[in-house]
Every structure is written in C-alpha cells, then in structure tokens.
Design goal:
heterodimer; A: alpha/beta; 8 helices; 34% helix; disordered N terminus; B: 82% helix; disordered C terminus
Chain lengths: 268, 260
C-alpha cells in the first residue's frame, strides 16, 4: 500500500552536497515506517544523507517529520525498514535541539549547556570550561549565570543550540528549533545556525514547516507527502551562496516552488 | 511595596468590619458572654492572661513548626522514593492514603502511650496530619516531570538514579512548595488536636489545653483567645513556608529579559 520512493544512492549524486566533513555521520534510511498502535505515524521514508550534509525535512503537519527525526535519533523504534549510520554513533555523537528549547528552569545557562557532558560523566571543571567555550563561540558570553526564565525566546533557543553542540556531535537533529520564534529572529538564527553547523562539520537533519527555511539552510530538502507522510525524491538546493540577498532572488523562489510542488504531488 | 499594601488592605478592611459587626451585634442583642463574648471582652481576657497564653502559644508554635519540619522531610523523602519506582508506589501509596483517612483524635491516645504526655506527642500529631499533602504533592511533582526534559536525560543515557536526583527531584520543587503550604495550616490543627488529648505536661499549657480547660470553666472568652492565637501560629507558619518557597522558586519564574 505504501509507495516506495527515493531510489537510494542515485540522489546522493544528484544532491549538491556541501564538502563532507570527516566528522559527520552518514545516515542510510531504507523504507522506514513507524506505527503507534494501529495508527501509521510515518508512512514510508528512504533517504541517504552524506557525512556533513544538511538535509531539511518538510511535510504536512501530522505527516511524520518529527517521528522520522526521533527514529533517526533512536528515540522510538521503527515498525518497518532500517536506519543505519556510517559508523555506530556513541552517546556524544548525536545532538538534539527541540522547538521548546527544553532547558531546565532551575539551572543557570552555563549549567544547562554543560548538562550533556555532566550526564556523560565529564569532570566538573572540564565540562564547565567546554560549556563556557561553546557560549563564547555563539557570542552568548555574559549570560552564563542567567536563568532560562530571564532570557527571551530567541536567546533560549540559542542556549539550547549551544547545549546540542557542546558534545561536538557528528549528527545534529533539529526539530523545528525556531518554530516558536518571530520571523525576524528566526531569519537571524537561521544564518547563525548554518554557520555553526558548517563550522562543526556535523551532519544535520532539520525538521521545519517553513519551506523558505528549508531551502535557505539545506543542501537537499526531503519531502514527506501526505498523512502519514511518504518520502518523495529529495529536492537538491543549488544556491550559489547563503545570504539574506539569496532569499529574495528568483532562483530561491523557484526552489521553494519545486519543494511546494513535491509537497502537493505535482511533478518534482 | 504599594502593591503589597494594596493586596493586604482589602482583607484587613473586611476583618475589621466583621469584628465591628460582631462587637455591635453582641452588645445590641445582649448575647451572654458564655455563649459569644464580644471581641473587646476576648481581647481583655487575653491581655489579663497574657503570660500564660504567650507561653502556651510558644509551646503550640514549637509543636506545629517541629511537626511541619518532620512532615516536610518525611513527605519529600517518602514521596520521592515512591515516585522513583512504580512498584513501590503501587504497594505503598494506598497504605499512605489509608493512613491519611485515620482520624487523628483516634490515634492521639496511642501517641500518648508511645511518646508520653507533652511536646513529643503533640509534635508527632502535627507531623502525622501534615505529612500526607507533602507526600502526595511530591509524588505528583515527580510523576509530572516534563516528558521533554525526561527525553533530554534519556538521549544522554542518564541512569535511573541520576534522572531521579538531577531531574525529577528538582522538577518537583514547585509541587513540594505547594504541598508544604497546605501542610503548614494542617500542622497547627494537628498540634492543637494533639494537645486536647496529650497536651498536659509540666507547668505550661499549650493553646489546645487552654481551649479544653477554659471550656470546662465556661471561660468562652479565653477559648476564643486561644483559638485566635492558634490561628496566628498557623498564619505565621504559612507565611514562613510561603516566603521560603518564593525564595527557592524566584529564579525559575523571573520575568523575561528584554533581549534580542
């Protein structure tokens, strides 16, 4: 009943993959599907992500974008198909960033960013130094001692991003990280995110409901069509540069239209 | 400051109004003092007996505060342990609930048998009445820990103990504060009821004993005075717990900064 889509490695060659960093994890998703009870949450998805590639996942709400992301992160089991990695990921290799930020309200910014290292058993001095370093790199120094409630929504998301990056992950899983923010803040954070991900060399999978955001950030856009979502051939994004100027260009609009078409079931 | 004043003013005005109506009604209707003394008569009796009442109030305050302290420690400990294990919870929570249903007056004599007359028994009585809301709210707080935060701990493969100590316990602090506020009022009730049965020890009569003794002497004015003073003890205890709670949660809920 489910159509098989994405003919595998072919798309890897089609995609305009950014220079694959040695650090990134490759992902191979084959016929992945997820059911909760009798309900299909993710219809069928196949996708190969090259090490260091940035893939955005778009689709109808309720189509299983987040489900796919969580399955990649090992947070829920597949009902069918497989997800494998170029190397078995260790506990520090996957960084998650969620829309709600999910900071611990009783911890300072610094202690929140240090949390993943703390849970991995890194000694106190070392983990605090690493957290402070990550905050500096994100130009967040000066807020180390603040509590999450004292930060604006945009700042909270940047702290959550710092926490996701503090273990130097080889795979970043981003679940609508800026979905709750206003357009202006979101655009600014998109650019910052892109810089950070490129600098880290990590592979990134971003779930978003914004086609513009997906096209601006990703090397390829993976479309889950329908409910439950069925994976479509990824749309390669061949933007010459990623700056605010590009967002108003004709080519950017064309790429968005192509993703939109794939979403609605037109010819890709 | 002005906001605080504004929130205190209406209840204060209402209280003064009630007392005034009471005073006027008692005088106008000629209600006998042994049935309902006028507020002025209560105040007068309290002033005449001030040293005995003050000593009694201190005694009741010690029993209530001590009982509350025990209740909060025991409630948080038991609640967080039960919250850590579904099986323990299934086994012991119904027992705790059953324990809660036992009327204190019925077990107060047992406390006398075990702990003797006096402060130890009344403190225990206060603790017994106050422990359940703390236990129940701690348990609720643990179980109500944000699943999103739980997932962060799961992603980083935190163990059961680590999750308990670093996530569930701090996450249940707001619930513990709420439960402790409820417990503060109950502790005073427990202490006074305990004093009815087991209060007589030494020369000092705690407020509960003042109530029963004054009742036998038909000194309704002193009964009212003791009741009012025990309410004051509850009020102060509630205030202390509320302030401690506010201090511990202040940084969680600070207003959002104006940034980026």
């Amino acid at each position: 009943m489910w159509r098989s889509s994405d003919a595998g490695p072919l798309h890897l060659e089609q995609g305009f993959v950014s220079v694959a960093a040695a650090g990134g994890l490759g992902i191979d998703i084959r016929g992945a599907s997820v059911r909760f009870g009798g309900m299909a949450a993710l219809g069928e998805a196949s996708l190969q992500v090259a090490p260091g590639e940035f893939v955005a996942v778009v689709g109808d709400s309720g189509g299983g974008k987040t489900t796919l992301l969580r399955a990649i992160g090992g947070l829920l089991p597949l009902s069918g198909g497989t997800i494998s990695f170029s190397q078995a990921p260790g506990p520090r290799d996957i960084g998650f960033c969620f829309q709600e930020g999910r900071l611990l309200p009783w911890r300072s910014v610094l202690a929140n960013v240090a949390l993943p290292l703390e849970l991995e058993g890194v000694p106190r001095g070392e983990r605090l130094a690493a957290a402070a370093d990550m905050l500096r790199r994100m130009r967040l120094h000066g807020v180390e001692k603040r509590m999450p409630a004292q930060l604006s929504g945009g700042m909270r998301m940047r702290v959550a991003m710092a926490r996701a990056l503090v273990t130097r992950p080889r795979l970043l899983l981003l679940d609508e990280p800026f979905g709750a923010l206003d357009e202006v803040t979101r655009t600014a954070l998109d650019a910052e995110l892109l810089g950070l991900v490129r600098e880290s060399g990590a592979t990134a999978v971003l779930v978003t409901h914004s086609i513009q955001e997906a096209v601006f950030l990703a090397d390829r856009v993976f479309v889950l069509r329908g409910r439950p979502g069925v994976g479509q051939p990824p749309v390669p994004i061949d933007l010459p540069e990623r700056s605010d100027r590009v967002r108003v260009g004709v080519h950017f609009a064309e790429l968005c239209a192509r993703v939109q078409q794939s979403l609605q079931g037109g010819a890709p | 400051m002005t906001a605080g004043l504004r929130s205190v003013t209406p209840p204060l005005v209402a209280a003064v109004a009630v007392v005034m109506v009471w005073e006027v009604a008692v005088r106008a209707l000629g209600v006998p003092a042994y049935l309902l003394p006028a507020p002025s008569a209560v105040a007068e009796a309290a002033w005449d007996d001030r040293s005995r009442l003050a000593a009694g109030m201190l005694q009741t305050a010690i029993a209530s505060a001590g009982g509350l302290a025990i209740a909060v420690s025991a409630g948080v400990t038991l609640g967080s342990v039960l919250g850590a294990s579904r099986r323990l919870q299934q086994a012991f929570y119904p027992l705790a609930l059953l324990f809660q249903m036992v009327p204190l007056v019925a077990i107060a004599p047992l406390l006398v048998i075990w702990l003797g007359y006096g402060l130890r028994s009344t403190t225990a009585a206060a603790a017994i009445v106050a422990v359940f809301p703390v236990l129940a709210s701690t348990l609720d707080g643990m179980r109500g820990t944000d699943p999103g935060l739980r997932e962060i701990f799961r992603i980083h493969r935190a163990g059961r103990l680590t999750t308990w100590w670093k996530l569930e316990l701090p996450a249940s602090v707001p619930a513990v504060v709420t439960g402790s506020r409820v417990a503060a009022g109950l502790a005073v009730i427990g202490a006074v009821v305990g004093e009815f049965v087991s209060g007589s020890a030494g020369t000092v009569s705690p407020l509960g004993l003042v109530v029963t003794a004054s009742m036998r002497e038909a000194r309704t004015d002193l009964v009212f005075a003791a009741v009012a003073l025990s309410a004051c003890v509850g009020f102060v205890l509630f205030g202390i717990v509320g302030t401690l709670g506010w201090l511990s949660l202040r940084r969680w809920h600070a207003s959002a900064a104006q940034e980026d």
